[in-house]
Amino acid sequence: xxxxxxxxxxxxxxxxxxxAEAGPFYVxxxxxxxxxxxxxxxxxxxxxxxxxxxxxxxxxxxxxxxxRELCKQLRAMGTGRLILTGEGEPFLHPRLLEMxxxxxxxxxxxxxxxxGTLLDEGKVQSLIDSQLDVLTxxxxxGSQEEYERNHPGxxxxxxxxxxxxxxxxxxxxxxxxxxxxxxxxxHPIYRNNFxxxxxxxxxxxxxxxxTLSFSPLRTRRxxxxxxxxxxxxxxxxxxxxxxxxxxxxxxxxxxNIDNTILRYRTGEKVWEKVPCYVGWVQAHxxxxxxxxxxxxxxLPMGNLNEDRLSDIWNGPSLKRFRRQTLxxxxxxxxxxxxxxxxxxxxxxNMRVHRIFxxxxxxxxxxxxxxxxxxxxxx
Length: 378
Known about the structure:
By secondary structure, this protein is α/β, with parallel strands linked by helices. It has helices at 4-14, 64-77, 96-105, 121-130, 144-150, 156-175, 197-206, 231-250, 257-266, 278-281, 309-313, 316-324, 328-334, 346-356; strands at residues 26-30, 81-85, 109-114, 134-138, 182-189, 211-216, 254-255, 282-285, 290-292, 302-303. The chain contains 14 helices and 10 strands.
């Protein structure tokens, strides 16, 4: 959640139409391109779809030197949060734990995304010792059998490893009186598993997770359309999510169910409903140093091997991106290069737009253009 100072600086920058007065609130860093799974819905490793990734494909891991310098730059820019993710499994990077310690040493709030299959006892203890803030484990299934169906070539031992690791994490945290890391079990939803959300709630409770989160499958411009939910399935899912929400609330397990239902209600074509403000609040760094506005966009804004992030942040490419995404015409053009379907930022974009929509028509160059007034998703 942004601080009051960050919000004020965000809106001051928005009034210029292109220049961010605050550094990114958070930055996502791709750790590695390598992965030990082939999740059906993954844009990079699914047997059904391979989305080209921008940047130098010969680079498999981010260099530790580049990462260390980035952490220093983030603190200088006032960025407080760092998210370690990737095209693959972060624990396949040989210096991942050292990277977490480096980020923590400069005061960054650190979130790590993982598929959980490499979380042995030593890594679990190391994550606790590192004071990692949030550990998010992506899990597409609530049982061994479902896990094998959703991860071609993966055996049931992977599912057991994840469950054992999460239970061990909860046990060790309790024994050591540690509240970190906060553990999020994340469940992407699609046709093969949308009936399993009750099982996921059971699993979150059994493993002592702090939060259970969900997200709609992104069909990758229709390439995974066979896995998408029908309208009837979506309505049934929304009802089931509402029921699970009450249960999770009673158990004091966090969730993002309101956000998930909003994303389904908004639909895939979110760019028709609300502007995109992502270029003002975050940046995504690929393993080779390429800087993107977000993980779903293939438009390079610069490269950290050539320029500092602060220079890229208010450089010509990102300024142009910000101008474009404040208009329907511009956002439609950007959509040719970005997969905005079921955008994960829709709730934040709406929160900003509820205020900024009253000022945006008066920005330079905005008159006589199609606007998002009134808020179309209300």
